Amino acid sequence: MKLAATKNMKATVNDLLVKVRKSRYQRYRVFCNARQEREARKKRKLMAKLRRALRKPEDWQRHMRVLERLAAPKVAARPKRRKPSKKRKWRPVDMERTYFLALPMIRHAPVLRDPFEVSERALTYRMSKRMEKLTARKIRPEIPLRIPGAVSPAATKAIASERVIALAKPAQRPAGRETDLREDAFTVSPMALKARCSKRLKSLAKPKTYPKPVFKRLRAALRR
Fold first, then answer.
1. Which carries the bigger pLDDT value, residue 8 or residue 37?
2. CB neighbours (10 Å) of residue 60?
3. 98 partner at 20 to 30 Å CA-CA among 3, 14, 39, 87?
4. 21 located within any domain
């Protein structure tokens, strides 16, 4: 039975072929084929290199001997035998030497050096040019003492800015306003006369009462 070659059938077949090409299995096949080709290429290169190296029968025999040596099991090396140490000959004990070593160490008092004595090398020493420069006294410029109250010449030539002039002027307060400095310290302001005292201020204005002190020792002494 043959299928009718219609446009719809061709379109569906083409879609299926495209899906097969883009499927995971197809990609896996591509990767596997590439890997096999790469391994085969490496093998061909190795075989060609081996054929070039083993052209003569002697080369092939040498190659087989090397393979046999590499295929043989590894033999562990035997540990080296240590040579027996020679026994020292016995010698008699020297009692005089032992007695000398047992004596305490004698320390002599150090000779004190005279602090005012000059060594001979210091007397014959020749000074270098560098030492002469270092021994020369350093001359420092004399700084004149500042006179208290004197004005520096830079201050006499300074020009004050508008901000400095504004700050130098005294603060102007409006006339009639009460300040901290009053002529009569006991005058009460009219606002204070009209003020109403709160409960909290009344409780704070009351004098605080303290309990009478009790002297226990004094009371016990009086009872006796």
1. 37
2. 13
3. 87
4. yes
Q: Could you tell me what percentage of the chain is helix, strand and coil, using 3-state DSSP and rounding each to the nearest 5?
A: 50, 0, 50
Show the tokens assigned to 159. 């020009």
DSSP state of 111: P
pLDDT digits (tens, 9 = 90+) for 186-221: 788 888 888 888 999 999 999 988 887 776 666 665
Handedness of CA 56, 57, 59, 60 (dihedral sign): positive
Note whether residue 31 is domain-resident. yes
* DSSP sequence for 32-91: HHHHHHHHHHHHHHHHHHHHHH--SHHHHHHHHHHHHHHHSPPPPPPPPPPPPPPPPPP-
What domain count does the chain have? Answer: 1
What is the residue-averaged pLDDT of the chain?
Answer: 81
Q: Identify the domain containing residue 25 by its residue range.
A: 7-71
CB contact set of 178 (below 8 Å; sequence gap of 6+): 189
Question: Which whole-number Å values give the CA distances from 184 to 159, 173, 174, 190, in the listed order?
Answer: 44, 19, 19, 15
pLDDT one-digit tens code per residue, 48-76: 888 887 777 788 888 888 888 889 888 88
Residue 23 counted as domain residue: yes
Closest CA to 93 of 101, 83, 85: 101
* Cα-only R_g, the chain: 59
- Is residue 66 domain-resident? yes
